[in-house]
Amino acid sequence: MTNTDKKAVTLRYLAGSLMLMLGVFGFYLGGLWTWLGTAAFILLVILDVYLPRDEELHQVKSSGFQHAVLYFQLPLIVTLWLMFADMLSTGNGGLLELTGAIFSISFLSALGGLPPSHELMHRYGGFDRFYCSLYLTVFLLPMNDLGHVKGHHLKVATSEDSDTPRRGEWVYTFAFRSIWGQLIESIGIEKSRLQKNKKPLWSFGSRFLQSAILITIWLSVWFSIAGIEALPVYVLTMAIFYLVLGGFNYTQHYGLIRLIGEPIETRHSWNQLKPLSRALSFEISNHSEHHLKPTRFYTDLNPYPDAPQLPSIALCFVCAFIPPIWESKIVRPQLAIWDETMASDAERELAHEANIKAGWV
User: Fold this and answer.
1) I need a surface site. Which of 39, 143, 213, 350 has the fewest CB within 10 A?
2) What pTM did the predictor assign?
3) Nearest Cα to 163, choosing from 299, 318, 270?
4) What is the pLDDT of residues 55-104, one digit of tens each?
5) Are 93 and 105 in contact (CB under 8 A)?
6) Helices and strands counted in the chain (H then E)
7) Into how many domains does the chain fold?
């Protein structure tokens, strides 16, 4: 790889920051420009579908930039939400402008916040994990990293994992089931840790107490700008955001099966190896490798083109909200291949039972 190629690969990790800056610019201009973030997402879908697959390990040496870019997107997300609050406080925007703002902030918060916070939650450094909790605070989920790291990564693709969609399960139910499941599991993990030290859930140093404080500060700031009368719009926006967030999680393990207690292998995650999918997700679309080595830095993740494959993250996200298309055109054909060529004998039996429950046979 030439130096020019390496620079191009490195700079593509700014794609999420660029989308967020477009969203901020749209909010600054106001009016129908609030749809700019949504338009940027639509353009992303189109580009990612038509770009060729990217199955290379690009041998980009991790540098300060690759680390720093993980921090860039939080200030932009916070700026978006505060501009949204200011827009609501004036009450000048029409229904079309408000709708554009809600969808733009939902798409951009998920695309801009989930990948970097996910990368940071797998770090060992205390500051990285705290910065992750700041990302998650905007989503009202500041301690859900516990459920992800200590729950999902141990239970992935099993019946115990709230973050693995069942065959036939629609994204509309999965999005809220998974968020609730991760929240309950995170609280349980922290409660168990504190009990070992004979401390209550509300004790000083408790992640639960820290999370409550962070959420209180964030909501106090936001509603001090937007006004309490913005509560219905805020609730609606968060509901749509959670659907968007769940939509991206939905495609990572959908329908895949692993026996409880059996080793995690590359076949238990879907890979989505398109250039923009990889760039925007900070390589989390190399999902098989991530689950084998969760703490490996994102630029070092191997693509594993022989692992289970789906199309671009953006395309899968859109199709997931149209279940007949998602099932018949995208995931069921790939699951049929998985059942036949990748599943163990025991997994194949469970897959057959899952297909019956889903009404597929």
Assistant:
1) 213
2) 0.93
3) 270
4) 888 766 667 888 899 999 999 999 999 999 999 998 777 899 999 999 99
5) no
6) 17, 0
7) 1
Q: Across the strands, what pairs with 309?
A: 271
Name, in order, each residue with C-beta under 8 angstroms of 194's C-beta and a sequence gap of 6 or more: 200, 201, 203, 206
Taking residues 119-127, report their average pLDDT: 92
CA distance 5 to 8: 5
Which residues lie across from 271 on neighbouring strands? 309
| Side chain identity at residue 72, one-letter code | F
Is residue 342 one of the residues assigned to a domain? no
In a domain, 290, yes or no: yes
Cα distance between residue 241 and residue 112, in whole Å: 12
> Token pair 């949204």 is at which residue?
84
Range of the domain at 78: 3-322
First to last CA, the chain: 48
Report the 10 Å Cβ neighbour count for 158.
18
Q: Are 45 and 311 in contact (CB under 8 A)?
A: no
Q: What is the DSSP letter of 129?
A: H
Q: Give SS3 for 15.
A: helix
Asked if residue 130 is part of any domain, the answer here is: yes
List pLDDT tens digits, range 164-196: 999 999 999 999 999 999 999 999 999 999 999
Identify whether the C-beta of residue 84 lies closer than 8 Å to the C-beta of residue 24. Answer: no
Would residue 144 count as lying in a domain?
A: yes
3-class DSSP assignment, residue 16: helix
For residue 358, what are the contacts with CB-CB under 8 A and spacing of at least 6?
166, 167, 168, 169
Find, among 123, 52, 86, 23, the residue nearest to 223 by Cα.
86
pLDDT in tens, 240-265: 999 999 999 999 999 999 999 999 99
* Residue 230 · residue 89 · CB < 8 Å: yes
